[in-house]
Amino acid sequence: MYEELKERGFELVAVAQDTAGEEAAGPFYDAAKATFTTLIDRQHLVSSLYEMTNVPTGVMIDEEGRVVRFDEGTYTRTYQAGALSFGTDEYVPILRDWVEKGAASELVFSPEQMAERLPRRDRAELAADAHFRMASYLVAQGERDAAESHWAEAQRLHPESWNYHRQDWSFTPAEAGPNWIRKFQSLEGEPYYAPLEKPGETPPG
Prior knowledge:
This protein is an alpha+beta fold. The chain has 2 domains: 2-117, Glutaredoxin; 123-185, no CATH class. It is built from 9 helices and 6 strands. The strands form 3 sheets. The chain has a two-stranded parallel ribbon with strand order 1-2. The chain starts with a helix and ends in a 20-residue tail after the last helix.
């Protein structure tokens, strides 16, 4: 699909949010034989600036550098009856429509509509982000034990952020799966990703 859309002027940039850097993210890019731009963000600057709480997450940016859709699940996970399932057929049609029609697409938001949808982080969420980035920094310096209290505080202050939990769990692979399942089951009907919106719909919250 990417090569088809690239012929229409579309560029895909993948930014892995992983404190462990090349060691953790590189093999996935290699296995995918990616033909698009691939980056690794050890400090999680992208997810911090775009206030992302889960990955993978899509952001659509037009030729003028304007964000027309952001922070959306490009695929989802579900967990039912002890089994995981992956995938959604909702996001790709939106992407295709935008690539074909540009600003005329009825599936992208105007600057005013985007402004209404931008999240406003409270003090607890800002503090959580600071603790998370400190933990990431300490891990990059080889101080894994020193990072523990900052991981925990970030998760306490902003428990809705899957990124905070998953990055911490990534350093204990044997526990990561069970931890994820427990947290997923605790959603009790709440979506793993927010439902995809269309222009004209009322923003959540």
